[in-house]
Structures are given as C-alpha cells and as structure tokens.
Amino acid sequence: xxxxxxxxxxxxxxxxxxxxxxxxxxxxxxxxxxxxxxxxxxxxxxxxxxxxxxxxxxxxxxxxxxxxxxxxxxxxxxxxxxxxxxxxxxxxxxxxxxxxxxxxxxxxxxxxxxxxxxxxxxxxxxxxxxxxxxxxxxxxxxxxxxxxxxxxxxxxxxxxxxxxxxxxxxxxxxxxxxxxxxxxxxxxxxxxxxxxxxxxxxxxxxxxxxxxxxxxxxxxxxxxxxxxxxxxxxxxxxxxxxxxxxxxxxxxxxxxxxxxxxxxxxxxxxxxxxxxxxxxxxxxxxxxxxxxxxxxxxxxxxxxxxxxxxxx
Length: 312
What we know:
Elements lengths: L1 H9 L5 H19 L14 H13 L4 H20 L26 H9 L12 H24 L3 H5 L6 E2 L4 E5 L5 E5 L2 H21 L20 H14 L9 H13 L4 H8 L4 H4 L1 H17 L4
Antiparallel strand pairs: 1-2, 2-3
C-alpha cells in the first residue's frame, strides 16, 4: 500500500484528496475480506474474482449509489493493476468485473433570469450601518468578494476547488484569462467575461483595503479570497456563502456551486457553442462527459416546443 501511495503521488501526480479516497476504499475492502482487526501483511495473492464480486455485492446491500460503487471498484482495480505491474500478484481479480450502471440524471441548471437574481444577491438590502471602521470595511470586502466568486464561477465554469485554490498569479485581467489546475492537476485556460473582470477588480481593491486591518505580520495577502482571520477562504465556506445568497434571491438553497458550472455549459450550448469547445472549457477528459449537457438543452427545446407549437 505504501508503494502504491508513492506511485499515485510520483507517477500519477494525484492530489492528496484522491490518495485519501484510494486508501479509504482499499481499507474497506481489507475490513470486509479479512476483518476489521486483522493486521498486515495481507494475502493479496489469494484474493479471487469471488472476493472481488463479494465486495461489489456488499456495496449494493449497503444501498450505495452507483457512482460510489464504481469509484470503489475502480480504486481496487487500479491497486491490483499496480501490483500486477510490480509482479506482486499474478492476476487482477477486479478486471472484467461489470460495474453498476449509472442512472442518467440530468444536472440541475439555473435559467438566465435565475442567474441574474443570484449574481445580484450580494448587493440586495445594503444598508449603511454605523459600524466600526473595521466592520464596515470587512462588510464591503465580503460583499465584493462574494459577488466576484459568483461571477467567476458562472463566467468560467470552474469547479469549486479550482476557484478556492486560485492564486493571483493565475489571473491575467488585461487579457481576461484565468489559468486553473483541474483534475489530475491538468492546467487549462478559462476566459473571463467583462462582468467577472469588473467584479474581481473591485474585490481585489477591497481586499487591499481590509488586509492591513487583518494582517498581523504585514506582507502581501496570502490568498485571492480571504476569510475573517486573513486566511484562505475554503470550499465549504464558499458553499455556505452561496446557500445564503440562494435564499436571499428566492432560489432553491439545496443547489451547490457546481450548479453554476452546469448552467455555464448549458447556456453556452443553448447559444450555439460547439460541444468540443465546451469540453475544453470545462476540462473534461472525455467528450461523453460533456454530452450530458446536450440532453439538457434538448429538454429545454422540448419544453419550448410543447408550450409554443399548436400541434404539440
């Protein structure tokens, strides 16, 4: 397992989050196959297809989502593929195992009118408060920061983690380009729209004003988006922030930041963008992943057709 972790970090350039998921899946297989309290070393060579299939059946009995079961089986398959390459085992019991079928659920998408309401939400109900200078400066920064985050999520279709990890040197506001590191640490270029650039400039100006009040040791701000302690804003904090604005805008509070990514792709296709371009902008490795958005666009066309066509 230690050798596999080294392989993931060194050769696959996997993130720590991915490594942690692989280890969790392998440990679950160990617990099911040899028991919770069994100490290593484990007899990996003795695992056969029946044991592999038993792990799949266990996942189904636990009523796990098909996506979760597929990920766990993929982790074990990769682990055995590695051991096979290193001649630690003679066969991969997880190869050829039929994975659970995924139900094709269309992602939730916001309409253009709903997007406008959400993007304007940070500026709703602004009242001039007689607060301390620090509090007032912080409120102004938090408002401009949140508006910039929402604009950037919709303007670029970036994933939540990609935006949370963003650094200032990844932005070119003159050219209107943002460079992000996606899954597998692959880099891609994301164009920034005019409203997103304007919102980001405003947020950066507000950050530079609030930073002297937050900084303890001086220097430059450590992150593009700051929390109240002067540290980096976490993905979880961005999720909570968006939930608040969804409520303020009268929208479904269960929507996640990923809904802005789905909306970005769907609205591009609705406006005539080709599928390959959208694939590049989203950073999808396979075109089949992007094709789900064509189904969303078609569903919208069907709704319009059924409402408008006299023979529908």
